[in-house]
Specification:
The chain is about 40% helix and about 20% strand. It has about 130 residues and is of the alpha+beta class. It is built from 3 helices and 4 strands.
Length: about 130
């Protein structure tokens, strides 16, 4: 049984089809809170799934890209409880926008703000309180 604060493989967005549906279909929405942008859409799975990306254009070395993705995953893992009471499940892609590294607290606050905005906009549009 997975722990409540873990991020198992089932909660990661993987596969070419799932990722392309997130970015190519017109039913995706986007929220930006510097240095991260989130693209999300409802899914038909049993849980929320997330993806973290950092462009090679911003960070030439894989070590730097991996550090940024690790920060995003950790911030999401600690704050995913914000989306727990939603009626629908989402596919969320977090995209790093800055050319520079940020402190983990900045990343965590950005993820928290994004998740709060997603929760409020999704609950308002679906009629929940």
């Amino acid at each position: 049984m997975p722990r409540a604060n873990s991020l198992p493989k089932s909660q990661r967005l993987t596969g070419r089809t799932a990722v392309s549906q997130l970015f190519q279909n017109g039913n995706s929405r986007s929220i930006t809170c510097h240095p991260i942008r989130a693209v999300y859409r409802p899914n038909d799975q049993l849980c929320h799934r997330m993806l973290a990306t950092a462009s090679k254009h911003h960070f030439r070395h894989a070590v730097d890209r991996n550090r940024v993705k690790r920060q995003i995953r950790e911030a999401y893992r600690l704050n995913k409880h914000i989306l727990q009471d939603m009626g629908t499940h989402l596919d969320i892609a977090f995209i790093w926008l800055s050319n520079h590294h940020k402190d983990s607290q900045v990343v965590a606050s950005s993820i928290q703000n994004i998740l709060n905005k997603i929760y409020t906009t999704t609950c308002i549009s679906s009629g929940q309180s």
